[in-house]
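Exercise 7b. Backbone tokens:
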């Protein structure tokens, strides 16, 4: 990692910490400029508005999630239990960062921005979880009587219908709890006896 991150990276990092912890509604561009020791003019040169900054924060977050998934799925190609443990732990770590005020603000103020998250999330699930289930079938850990593509579609449908701000708020859950529950249900049905034992 470079020692001197660009001003753009510093802005995204500071906004990310504030947005995910406190929501983005309560954070002003003035607050961020003051915290970073930059002028508002500099801030607006990089991000014309708060929603542009929100999109950059979400893009940064999704890039981190993808890096985690890539690393985990490559680390133990023939050790399904280790990959599964690391996938679950990595998902938990990534979702720990997101607190209730952020979910609330996404629901109330940025439903259109959340569509970006949904598209990227679906692509990541298909790419990395698809490989995971195919590898699991090859190793006898995932049942072969259900096509891996169907398992992924079931996972995607559950994530799409449950892992969105209005439903999370309605259920009184955080994203971490929702994903963990979904993965447990899908994996319980997808794993063979050998896979569950491992």
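Sequence design result:
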């Amino acid at each position: 990692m470079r020692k001197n991150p660009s001003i753009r990276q510093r802005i995204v990092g500071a906004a990310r910490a504030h947005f995910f912890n406190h929501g983005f509604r309560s954070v002003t561009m003035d607050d961020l400029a003051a915290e970073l020791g930059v002028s508002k003019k500099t801030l607006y040169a990089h991000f014309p508005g708060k929603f542009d900054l929100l999109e950059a924060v979400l893009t940064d977050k999704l890039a981190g999630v993808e890096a985690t998934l890539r690393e985990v799925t490559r680390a133990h190609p023939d050790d399904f239990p280790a990959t599964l443990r690391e996938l679950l732990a990595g998902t938990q770590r990534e979702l720990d960062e997101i607190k209730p005020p952020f979910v609330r603000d996404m629901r109330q103020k940025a439903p259109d921005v959340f569509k970006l998250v949904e598209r990227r999330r679906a692509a990541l699930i298909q790419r990395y979880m698809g490989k995971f289930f195919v590898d699991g079938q090859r190793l006898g850990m995932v049942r072969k009587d259900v096509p891996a593509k169907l398992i992924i579609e079931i996972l995607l449908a559950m994530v799409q219908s449950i892992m969105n701000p209005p439903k999370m708020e309605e259920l009184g859950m955080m994203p971490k709890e929702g994903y963990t529950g979904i993965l447990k249900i899908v994996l319980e049905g997808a794993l063979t006896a050998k896979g569950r034992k491992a």
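Instructor comment: The chain has a mean pLDDT of 90. The radius of gyration is 19 Å.
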